[in-house]
Design a protein that fits this description.
The chain has 175 residues and is of the alpha+beta class. The protein is built from four helices and eight strands, in the order ββαααββββββα. The chain is elongated and about 70 Å long.
């Protein structure tokens, strides 16, 4: 994630480039399977029909396209002058924009989930006043602190929480 800040705007971007590169790799390999199954193999005539059908199915599954589709580029623009939050998602096939007023938003938050091994993973999310949180990021993080910094910065910019202060109270008396 990357942030840019001016006096009146905070822009948070998530560009899952690694997932897109891996997705393109799988799409390329799948395309080779489809090409071969449709007559592109050098020994196409000697291949059994079940092997050609299996190659066609394996290439058509679209694992690469699915990886790219499920990881859109996300851009959040928090505008203090207009009191709005614009969430834009750029995917493989479409772009989706959502505009929210500050009055509709309770604040940014973290969503907790579990990975395949049972460890905690964290997503950056937007909590509306009367609705479930909207997951913003497609890339989860095992570091709660890393995602919490974005939550805090966005909420502070919108004046949804107080400026950071840590108060450590220790008592030296015995009871």
């Amino acid at each position: 994630m990357h942030t840019e800040q001016t006096q009146n705007e905070l822009i948070i971007r998530e560009t899952p480039g690694c997932l897109w590169i891996i997705g393109l790799f799988f799409a390329f390999v799948g395309g080779i399977f489809v090409y071969g199954a449709l007559g592109g193999f050098a020994d196409y005539a000697r291949q059994s029909p079940w092997m050609l059908a299996a190659a066609l199915i394996m290439g058509s599954v679209g694992v690469g396209v699915w990886a790219i589709y499920t990881a859109p580029i996300t851009k959040i623009v928090i505008n203090r002058i207009e009191n709005t939050v614009l969430m834009s998602r750029y995917g493989l096939f479409a772009r989706a924009d959502s505009l929210y007023d500050f009055d509709q938003i309770e604040g940014f938050c973290l969503m907790e989930d579990r990975d395949d091994e049972g460890d905690e993973i964290w997503y950056f999310a937007l909590k509306l006043i009367d609705d479930e949180p909207i997951r913003i990021t497609s890339l989860a993080s095992h570091s709660e602190t890393y995602k919490r910094e974005y939550v805090f910065r966005a909420n502070e910019f919108m004046h949804k929480q107080l400026t950071a202060t840590e108060m450590i109270l220790e008592t030296d008396f015995e009871m």
